[in-house]
Amino acid sequence: MTGQRDRWAELTGGEAGEEYAERFARLAESGHDIHGEAAFCAALLKPAARVLDAGCGTGRIAIRLAELGHACTGVDVDSSMLAVARREAPAQEWVLGDLTRLDALGLDPGYDLVLAAGNVIPLLASGTEPAVVRQLAAVLRPGGLLITGMGLDAAHLPLPEPPVTLAEFDHWCDQAGLTLRQRYATWSRDPYEEGCGYAVSVHARPAM
């Protein structure tokens, strides 16, 4: 652990797991599709791929990807969120840990896809973002993909203003040896245009 509270912890106090799960349960009950991120990732994966859900929260996406036949590991620093994930899918691998110290968690590298959805990057502790991107890139196999989703304005963030720009994020990815392949405005693949409030980005580690 870094000892530095991330923006998510500042917002929630690390006790939001049940409330977060209930919110998505209500959305599902009302007919909303809550599996857009999983469907997006699944379309990019071969059967039985290895996936790391970085900042997995309550496990909603990782559980769905496992249902689709992929081997998914979830990592999160919020124990209240992981408690829900472990209850919902006790057979899956859930790891309590800080993404800035991913290399110290004993994970087997070589993932086909690493996912950081749900504003994971903007909600990191200030100043740790480049280190986290490096850690995520390091566990990808050659040719593996880093998929991220993040708000770019207050309407798409639980923050008064965005702490991270796309230019900064792309720079950190470039420093980590990743190349931008695709960018969308939604998980449904709506085209991204300058000024969009949300970005779904696909970065790739070069193949050997």
Tell me about this structure.
The protein has 208 residues and is α/β, with parallel strands linked by helices. It is built from seven helices and seven strands, in the order αααβαβαββαβαββ. Strands 3-2-1-4-5-7-6 form a seven-stranded mixed β-sheet, with helices on both faces. Helix 2 packs across helix 5 (79-88), helix 3 packs across helix 4 and helix 6 (129-138) packs across helix 7. The radius of gyration is 16 Å and the shape is globular.
SSE blueprint and pairings:
Blueprint: H1 7-12, H2 17-29, H3 36-42, E1 50-54, H4 60-67, E2 71-76, H5 79-88, E3 93-96, E4 111-116, H6 129-138, E5 140-151, H7 166-175, E6 179-184, E7 198-204
Parallel strand pairs: 1-2, 1-4, 2-3, 4-5
Antiparallel strand pairs: 5-7, 6-7
Summarize the structure.
The chain is α/β, with parallel strands linked by helices. It has helices spanning 7-12, 17-29, 36-42, 60-67, 79-88, 129-138, 166-175; strands spanning 50-54, 71-76, 93-96, 111-116, 140-151, 179-184, 198-204.
Order of helices and strands: HHHEHEHEEHEHEE
Q: What is the CA-CA span between the terminal residues?
A: 32 Å
Q: State the helix count.
A: 7
Given as residue ranges, the uncertain stretches (5+ residues, pLDDT < 50) are: none
Biggest sheet strand order reads 3-2-1-4-5-7-6
Q: How big is the Rg?
A: 16 Å
Please give the share of residues in helix. 25-40%
Tell me about the largest β-sheet.
7 strands, mixed
Helix/strand/pairing category: alpha/beta
Question: How many strands in all?
Answer: 7
What is the beta-strand fraction?
A: 15-25%
Q: Please state the average pLDDT score.
A: 91
Describe the global form: globular
